[in-house]
Amino acid sequence: MTTKRGNEPKAQEAGLDRRTLITGAGAAVVAAGMGAAQAGSGDRQRISVARRGRYETVELRQPGINVSAIQSRVKSVDLRNLRRTNRENLDHVLRLIDIAQGMPEEWGGGRLWGARQDLLCMHEFPIQGWQPWGRRELQRIAYELPGPESEAIGERARRYGCYISWGAYVRDPDWPGHILNLSVLTGPDGSIISKQWKARNILGLFGDSALIGTTVYDVLDRFVEMYGWDEVLPVARTDIGNIALTAVGLEPILYQALALKGAEILVMTVTGGSNADSAIATARANRFYTLGVGNSVTFDNLGFAEAAGIRGDGSVIVDPTGTVLAQTANHHEDIITARVPIADFRQSRRFPEVPMALLLPLFQQYEPAFKPNAFMEELPETYRDAGRLLRQRMEGG
Fold first, then answer.
1. Is 347 left (phi over 0), alpha (psi -120 to 50) or beta?
2. Could you tell me which residues come within 8 angstroms of residue 186 by beta carbon, excluding any fewer than 6 positions away?
């Protein structure tokens, strides 16, 4: 790993015990602000975090990049004909990638419009869509990585020499029975360079139900044992900038923690919940580029009206001052692009300061209603099962 001017921190040692670091959402900021979670020793406890405004990077391949947000439908696969509908949705995504690059098949394969894009970003479930499926159904729907879908997206990334971010439900042999909610970053060589787990689900906001996709928070202790603290809130350090992907909505502390870890571009991808105002506020507060990628109106989607949960003012690309560089004009399928002067930004970035001396005592003593590791005790089969488990844990059961 190479380093830009003044941009290589070392993990600091913090006198915090393991219980302190897993007591709530504020723990992410505690860990990031102090430099390393102290739950033992070794690389698994190291966290790559900014120190005096300096953070880890790799050398940039070019001073400026073109980024695109693809606002696409969220048409769910049909379990009655899973193979066909999954293929149709994948083909639709591949076509949108071609359009974003200005090279749709019907134009003869040449770029007749626009510039080559270096980063294409899609929402949380662009291929599979979303339904309140149970675990049995999700086991059928979820992908293995690598697999046919990631290989097809990888072929497009190689063809265009670009990065592509996208989300999916995923099965992993290291996590039998679990359904992972992953944000995936595919690199220009066609390989998956970063698999970023959803950090946590919003809890307590769905009445008697709750989500059943496994997040980091649901299995925190085992996750840290397997991958280390640095992967709890991952940042992909690439030659077009430091990129973080999140499908977590309404979580400003989490976004700030990613900024402290050196994220320069944040991609927010909450299907059915992305909001332009949130992306603008996040960019301004954390002083990094932010893409809020929402889904479009979706026709003939199983169980949903055409709006499919969309809200806010569409998809946006925002600069570190909160200025909107590009925004969709409506909620139909659309693609927006903007130029990001990533080298100039890196050299002149005013890093967000967090007054840890003021905040740390509060975070150390805060007791959340929803403790981590729920899915280490039980894997709920349905949304109602998950809601029951949630209520039990709220009551201390």
1. alpha
2. 150, 153, 154, 157, 163, 164, 165, 166, 192, 193
113, two tokens: 């419009």
With left for phi above 0 and alpha for psi between -120 and 50, is residue 338 left, alpha or beta?
Answer: beta
pLDDT at 275: 76
* Residue labelled with tokens 């007791």: 367
pLDDT tens digit sequence for 1-11: 443 333 444 33
The bridge status of strand 143-144 relative to strand 119-121 is unpaired
pLDDT at 42: 66
Within 8 A by CB and 6+ apart from 101, the residues are 111, 114, 116, 117, 120, 160, 162
Length of the chain: 397
70 phi and psi, to 5 degrees?
Answer: -100, 105
Q: What is the DSSP letter of 11?
A: P
For 105, phi then psi, to 5°, come to: -55, -40
3-state helix, strand, coil in the chain (%, to 5): 30, 20, 50
Burial of 137 (0-12, 13-18, 19+ CB in 10 A): middle
Which pTM does this prediction carry? 0.89
Q: How far apart are CA 35 and CA 31, in angstroms?
A: 6
Contacts of 127 (CB under 8 A, 6+ apart): 77, 86, 89, 90, 93, 149, 166, 168
The CATH architecture that domain 65-348 belongs to is 4-Layer Sandwich (3.60)
Q: Residue 108: pLDDT band by 50, 70, 90 thresholds?
A: confident
Give the span between the Cα atoms of 206 and 220, in whole angstroms. Answer: 22
Higher pLDDT pick, 387 / 275:
387
Burial of 192 per CB tally in 10 Å (0-12, 13-18, 19+): middle
Angle at 162 between CA 109 and CA 62, to 5 degrees: 120
Q: Are 314 and 294 in contact (CB under 8 A)?
A: yes
Q: What is d(CA 49, CA 27) in angstroms, rounded to the nearest whole number?
A: 14
Neighbouring-strand partners of residue 337: 68
